[in-house]
Amino acid sequence: MLNERRRVVVTGLGALTPLGLTPETFWDSMMKGVSGAAEITYFDVSTFDTKFACELKGYDPLNYMDRKTARKLDPFCQYAVAVAKQAIEDSHIADAPGVNKDTVGVIFGSGIGGIKLFTEQSKILIEQGAQRLWPFFIPMLIPDISSGLIAIDYGFRGPNYCLVSACATGNNNIGDAYLLIRTGFAEAVVCGGSEAPICEMGVGGFNAMKALSTRNDDPATASRPFDADREGFVLGEGGGALVLEELEHAQRRGAKIYAEVGGMGMSADAHHITAPHPEGAGAVLAMEMMLKDAGMKPEDLDYMNMHGTSTPLGDVAETKAVKRVFGDHAYKMNVSSTKSMTGHLLGAAGAVEAIAAIFSVMYDKVPPTINYRTPDPDCDLNCTPNKPQDRGVVYAASNAFGFGGHNTSIVFKKFEA
């Protein structure tokens, strides 16, 4: 719509994570190197290969919505509504004078959607018959319903949809929000992702494909990205939300600004439905596009929150890709995987890890990769092992990759007026 490129800033944050139920408590726990992994409490795990996950602790939906609404929503929708509420209230975008809600969009996704609801309704279908299925089953199952619910709650009538790209979903939704604002299709967008996969079908399905760690004797150390003894990821749940806004729009209303969105890159592996390209070819394209879009040189990047799932193939492929893009500078910048603490939040991972990158820019600190004990020569970058590190962070990037070969990279930078 516009010929000029508009600047996009972050004016609101919301987070529900296994480390804390606000962005600030999430960040504080990361700085302490806390693990969110423990034995699953939601269902009987006696017949499952993996008996632990990173559940939300102390979460009560009634802190964010009334009881009737909470009963109607699958947990992934609850989490989306809750983190959006945090971010919107943080930014004051809904109640600020002069904000035209026709220009405020919502782009919010989930990699899986209502898998818990699907599991429950499948049991009803088998045991009681089709006539007993819940009338809201379909609308509360589909991943895009979160975007609709958030818009309904606040009257935002701008662009409204959901991108689904497995574990790249959160990043993709933030990236599209950035592009819509940059090109003039919206003045502000609430964006992010949520996921609630810790149920029988979720854990059982990932166990069936041998994707999860089975370190049942020590869950807290099971997520160990880049470590030679890694053997699978740890399932997590929660959500992250950002309010992105055109710079002058934010300044006119006196909004606080956390950081600026520098650039975005997206690509496909075109290789395999679950395994990454062994040389990280698609990840290379995404990171190169991010740098070009941001007008950066490789040596400008200070910190990268890597996808780092703690899988044997994924961590090596991503390390190769980073070394190819950044050359010698790959060893001078910090990298880490906050999944070592949160577990893998699937479609929400990119959103909560974007918040980690934003706080890194704000506070000049790099969150650690915990549980790093045995070096892997194929993962030889500075993974910020076990303790956070102080360093100047002007640019912080976040990678998120998804089943199907979806690759996304996004970079945030310190805001300068």
Strand-residue fraction? 15-25%
SSE order, as H and E?
EHEEHHEHHHEHEHEHEHEHEHHEEEE
The coarse silhouette is: globular
Query: Compute the gyration radius: what is it?
Result: 20 Å
Number of helices: 13
Structural class, from secondary structure content?
A: alpha/beta
Give the spatial strand order of the biggest sheet.
Answer: 5-4-6-7-1-8-14-13-9-10
- How much is the average pLDDT? 97
Structure summary, number of beta strands: 14
Instruction: Please give the share of residues in helix.
Output: 25-40%
> Unreliable segments (pLDDT under 50, ≥5 consecutive)?
none
Rounded to the nearest angstrom, the distance between the terminal CA atoms is: 24 Å
Largest sheet data: 10 strands, mixed
Report on the architecture of this protein.
- It is a single chain.
- This protein has 417 residues and is of the alpha/beta class.
- Helices cover 33% and strands 18% of the residues.
- It has 13 helices and 14 strands.
- It has helices spanning 23-31, 67-72, 75-91, 115-128, 137-141, 145-154, 169-182, 200-208, 247-252, 281-294, 312-326, 339-342, 349-363, and strands spanning 8-16, 38-39, 52-53, 104-109, 160-161, 188-195, 238-246, 259-268, 303-305, 334-336, 365-366, 389-390, 395-402, 406-413.
- The strands form 3 sheets. It has a 10-stranded mixed β-sheet, with helices on both faces. A two-stranded antiparallel ribbon has the order 2-3. Strands 11-12 form a two-stranded antiparallel sheet.
- Strand 9, helix 11 and strand 10 form a beta-alpha-beta unit.
- The longest helix is centred in the N-terminal third of the chain and has 17 residues, at 75-91.
- The model has no long low-confidence stretch (mean pLDDT 97).
